Amino acid sequence: MLNSVNLLATAGDVALSWTSPIYPKLYSNDSSVNPLGRPITEDEDGWLGSLVTIGAIVGPLPFTFIAGKFGRKISILCIAVPYIISYCTMAFARTIYLYYFGRVLAGLGMGGGYAVLPMYIAEISEDSNRGMMTMTLNVFWALGDFIPFAVGPFLSIMWFNIILAAIPIVFVVIFYSIGIETPYYLVGVNRIEEAEKSLLKLRSAKNKGVPRELENIQIHLKEDEGGHFSDILRRKELRKAFIICMVLITAQALSGFSAITFYLQSIFEASGTSISPEISSLVFGLGLLMSSFFAPVLIDRLGRRILTISSCFGTSLSLLLIGAFFYIKDSTDLSTDSIFWIPILSLILFIFSLNFGLGAIPFTLCSELFPNNVKQIAASAVSSMCWIATFIITRFFNDMNAGMGIAGSFWFFSASCLAATIFSIIFVPETKGKSFSDIQDMLKYGSAKKGNK
C-alpha cells in the first residue's frame, strides 16, 4: 500500500525536472521536434518553468480541506486528477497556452501532494518507524525527478507526456483498490470501529498493541479538539514549530534545487564541460535517485536533527564549489579545461546532501510537530510558502544570472544553506521515536537539546 501511495509522489516530482529535456525541443526550429512550430521566447521559457509553482502555491488549500473534510484517502485520489489532465493536455498541445495550462495543473497536484502525502504516511506509521516511512517519499520524489532525465531527451514530447500520464492512472487503479483511511482521521470523525479495523490492517490482525494505540490516538485527539490558524500564532509550542518548518522549507527553496533541475541542461552547456549536457543530466539524475535511498535508513538511526544540519552544510559547500568554478570560467583568464569535472561532481554532492535532509525532512517535521487539529492548516501554509519561494527563484533565475552572474547565483544559494545550517544547530528539535503527544510536550516544556536524546 505504501508503494502505491509513493507512486503519486513520483507523478508529482516529474513536473519539476520536466522542463530540462523539454526546453531544447521547444527552442528547436524543427517542426518535427517542436510541436509549436517555432522556438519559444525567453519570457515563455520563464513562465513554463515557474507556472508549475503557481499551481503548487494554491494546491495545498483544496486538497488539505478535502483531507480534513472527507478523509486522507479521498484527498490523495483527487490529487491524481490534475496530473492526468496535465500530462494528457501537454501530450497533444500545439499552443504555448495549453502548455501553460498543463504546467499549472501539474503544480496544483504537486502542491497538494507535498502537503497531504507526508500527513497520510505519518498517520499510518508507528512511532518507531515513522521517520523512515515518511522519508520513503524522498525515494519516489527522486524517481520522479530522474524519469525526465532518463527518457525525456530520447522521446518526442507527445510520447514523453503520455508515459507520464500513465503513472497517476496506475496509481488510481491500485490505491482505490487497496488504500486504507488513516486511523487518526477515522477517530477524529468518531468512526472508532473503522479506526480499529484500519489499525488491525496496518499493524497485522494479531498485533496486541492495537487497542493501546487506538486509546492513545483518542487521548491525543481529545486534547486538541478544534483548531484555527490563530492557535498556531497564540500557542508558544505551535508558533515555535511553525517557525522551524517555515525557515527550513524556505531554505529548501533557496538552495536553488528547482532552478537547477529546471535548467540543468542549460547549466551544463554554460559550464563548457566536455561531457555532453544530456549525459551530465542523466548522471545527475542517477545521483539524485541513488542518494534518496540513504535517508530512509538513516533518519530513524541518526535522527532528524543531525541529518538536517549535515544536509544544510553539505549543500552550502557544494554550491560554493560550483560557484567558484563559474567565477574562474567567466571572470578570470584561467582555463577550466583541467577542472571540467567540477560542475557535475559538485551537483552530485549537492543532490546527495540535499536528499540526506533538507529535501524531505521539512515535510516530515511538518507532519510531526503539529497536533491533528491544526495539521492541515500548518501543512497548507508550509507547503504554500515552499512554492512561493520556489516560484520567485525559478521565475527570476535567468535574471539573477544576468545581474549577479552564474557564480553569484550559486553563491547566493550557498549562503542561504549556510544560514539554514546555523539555524538548525540552534533551533531544530529531535523527534526520532517520539509519539505525537511526546513531541508536543517537548515543544511546550523542553528545548531542542532536551528533545534530542
TrEMBL record:
GO cellular component annotations of the record: plasma membrane
UniProt-listed SUPFAM superfamilies: MFS general substrate transporter
One GO molecular-function entry: transmembrane transporter activity
Compartment(s) of residence: Cell membrane
Domain of life: Eukaryota
Family, similarity comment: Belongs to the major facilitator superfamily. Sugar transporter (TC 2.A.1.1) family. Trehalose transporter subfamily.
Protein name: Major facilitator superfamily (MFS) profile domain-containing protein
Organism in which the protein naturally occurs: Rhamnusium bicolor
